[in-house]
Amino acid sequence: MRIGPATPELPVRSVEEAQRYYRDRMGFRIGWHQEDGRIGAVSRGDCAIFFRETDTEIHPGTFWVFAEAIDDLYRALNDLGAEIVDPIEDKPWGLRQFTVRDLHGHLFHYHLDL
Fold first, then answer.
1. Which are the contacts of 98, defined by CB distance < 8 A and separation ≥ 6?
2. Which of 40, 72, 105, 114 has a CA that sits 20 to 30 A from residue 98's CA?
């Protein structure tokens, strides 16, 4: 029985603002936006993320994202101006990884198994 990748739904202040940020700073493609439901999505490769607008406090989440060409992705996100809070390096736990923080504080650990 195959189970696909999970799709997180992140709380945001504005779906449109989050979609633009992920497109411009993290290289995602804007998928859709349903204004009445205050929900939308972006994607990049097999990674999809939903956004849901909230008026309450946002508690940032942490996400682990596998990437095959990790060094190329690092350079591309750096060139786009993504907020890289932990530079790329080989970690003692057997991953090559780096970490990006989005405009709401959500963390994304991009990684490749060594």
1. 70, 74, 84, 86, 87, 88, 89, 109, 110
2. 40
In our burial notation (b when 16+ CB lie closer than 10 A, e otherwise), range 62-81 reads ebebebeebeebbeebeeee
Cα gap 93→1, rounded to integer Å: 29
| 8 Å CB contact between 99 and 107 | yes
Domain segments of the chain as ranges = 9-113
Q: Assign domain 9-113 to a CATH class.
A: alpha beta
pLDDT of residue 63: 96
**What is the pTM (predicted TM-score) of this model?**
0.92
